[in-house]
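Section handout 9: paired folding examples.
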Amino acid sequence: MAFRRKRVDRDNHERWLVSYADFITLLFAFFVVMYALSSVNEGKYKTFGLSLGDAFGAVTPKPGELPPVQIHMTEQEMYLKSIVDRRNARMAEQQRKQNERMQRLVTMLNQVMDAFVKNGQMTVSQTNRGVMLDINASALFAQGDAALAQTAQKTLADVAKVLVDGDQAIEVEGYTDNVPIKTSLYPSNWELSSARASSVVRLFIDQGVAAKRLTVVGSADNHPVLSNDTPEGRTRNRRVTITVLTPEMERVSLPFQATNSESAASGVLPDSN
């Protein structure tokens, strides 16, 4: 009698590795294909770009430089840019002419006031406000008085001849030291400093300088240039300053208010103010 061995079926728990290995292989192949499609030959790409730039006349950037940004402006933006450029050019020209004019004024005043400048009784300088003549009061007035000395009248008359043809505003400011004064004419240094500045202004008007250009300021002992503790300092602080003010820059209005048809054609609405 033959005996038949009983077959025992055993489960293979590692069969899933075959499927997993196939999946990983396919996934790897997928990413290899994707990388190959996305990879760009940088050298060939740059060569191609430079060839196109040369063909169309573009500016070729230097090595290490970024390519220029191409800005495409609308017609309205180009119109506004042209207006701004014209305004800036006009203002720059005005500034240049104005500086030349004020520098010529400094030269002429130095020539006219040469004697005072050499004696150290006056200085001519150009500041942000304009051209300033700083004159020691001892060269113009007697102590405690506001009447111009005879020699000062002649010199200031020459200054007026330089200023008469201009149109800049002129500010005349009087200063004193801190020593109090109390007379029938000048109860305090305020009246004395104002009277001295007024004497200079009256002389300018008599010499033909337009009154509307002139301003009188009395500052008494305010804004000293040196300490009032010494006689030299007090002498220096008694002074009159004549400032030819720098004219304000002419405002260049934008031509938006010309006509409605022009504004419509340019795409800019007129100002409603």
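Moving on to protein 2 of 2.
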Amino acid sequence: MLVTGGAGYIGSHAVKALERSGYGVVVYDNLIAGHRQAVGHVPLVEGDIGDVALVRRTLKAHQISAVMHFAAFLDVGESVREPVKYYRNNVVGTLGVLEAMAAEGVSTFVFSSTCATYGEPLETPIPETHPQHPINAYGASKLAIERALPHFERAYGLHWMALRYFNASGADPDGELGEDHSPEIHIIPRAIEAAMGGAELKVFGNDYPTPDGTCLRDYVHVTDLADAHVRALDRTMRTKTSGACNLGTGTPHSVLEVIGAVERVTGRTVPWSLAARRPGDPAALYAASGKAFDELGWTPRFPDLDSIVGTAWNWHRTHPAGYRTSSHP
């Protein structure tokens, strides 16, 4: 089992879940955004997904039968400023992985996709049948691969599952793995950082048509996402069928609710200030996840916001410098 991007946030949690399910795992990561410490004892091939020859050698040397693909850039704002970076890595690089798989006869692919493929929601909760009209290069780069996958299926016999998840959050309940981005772009770790004396949290807009005026999002625990990926792998290998599923709790929470949860869990105040809306931020994004429940047998273990924040807080308070330290500040 090859996990590309397996040294990253979601990928490392998936590696742990795969090992617990009895899979032999090899990680492939260039460590630009991932962390060697997150891989632990799992074999690591350090390389770029655009290096098709190295991907092929890795598939052959480790007798890989399936690929779980997380390797991607994911900063929506950056994707608007630097679309070439996102198309080169997320599209061209992923096509390189698929090319290598076809050449080596590897026919099972689980793809880390995103709700950003939907763009501005026409309805909420968002079902898998919702039109896909992304409004940024990140979402467009993921959709480009989703659209390529059926062609690889027809031509090369690829079986695949695309998992469109919403706001990945939280940390490993065992405290071994967590979220360590530089710079950090996600609200829960940024709110925790503010509570720990770091930079003040910016709240982008309070005039949305929501109960408290701030954006509503669907926060899904990273361990639950990892579990869904293992279930998707099992199903794809068993049934030899392909498709796409949303991954979310179906329960939206506002920015102010996140701040409240962080304050409850940490017992600290989160300093924040109001900033202008960000272009392209929809008022509400949350999932209809019935398909994942029905087809994958997936039920989130951490559906409530305080539980998600609690695991994140445990990670950040014991890893104040991320993977560079494990001691309490």
